[in-house]
Amino acid sequence: MSLLPPIHRVVTGHDAHGRAIVISDGPLPTVVELQAIPGTVFHEVWSTAGSPARVDNGPDPTHGPLVLPPPRQGSRLRFVDIPPDTAEHLTQGAARMREAFAQLGDAEASTVRADSPHPLMHRTESVDYGVVIDGELTLVLDEGEVLLRPGSVVIQRGSNHAWANRSDRPCRMLFVLLDGRYEPGLATALASKP
Question: Are the beta carbons of 102 and 68 closer than 8 angstroms?
């Protein structure tokens, strides 16, 4: 599994008198390594199923199958450990990408084509905040790349991208994903893209 330390999660709530209490305190219940990309580990922290989010003592939303995008009108908070790129992962990445996204419940997220700048290119219709916690990573876009180090923050607005780890150690990123909808003009441009 992950070479990085486990995530410690504290969930609060309220007792019958409205006093704030700790509902759970410990490791994450859902930590999943992608079979198609060994070393890529998803640490599911929390999600909301709508906006405004329900404030209650409801069940833990992280139980159940791993899903890439946030729920409709909801949000998702997770850490992802991304291993160093390997020759196999770069040469066979496109074929294995659909497998990886199928395990994430979103096989259609893969956008890789023969001329893609990276074999793990993908897109989701969401606004995602990605923060590098440990290690380094390169954000790869259709046009251009940016090297990211601890403290770097990416505001991903539904753009086609990949995460390349060209270092010799895993990178941990914190992601907050918010459900979104493409502006009609952009949706039309994306639909007509080869």
Answer: no
Provide the CA 12 distance to its chain's centre, in angstroms: 24
Walk me through the domains of the chain, giving residue ranges and CATH numbers: 46-192 (2.60.120.10)
**Does the pTM exceed 0.85?**
yes
Amino acid at 177: L
Burial of 192 (0-12, 13-18, 19+ CB in 10 A): exposed
Q: Which amino acid is at 178?
A: L
Average pLDDT by stretches of 10, the chain with 194 residues: 87 96 97 91 96 94 93 96 84 71 82 85 94 98 97 97 95 97 91 78
For 95-134, letters b (16+ CB in 10 Å) and e give ebbeebbebbebeebbbbeeebbbbbbbbbebbbebbbeb
Cβ contacts of residue 53 below 8 Å, gap of 6+?
A: 74, 75
C-beta of residue 125 within 8 angstroms of C-beta of residue 69: yes
Alpha-carbon span 63 to 181, nearest angstrom: 26
Give the Cα separation of 147 and 139 in Å (integer).
6
Spatial contact of 171 and 134, defined as CB atoms under 8 Å apart: yes
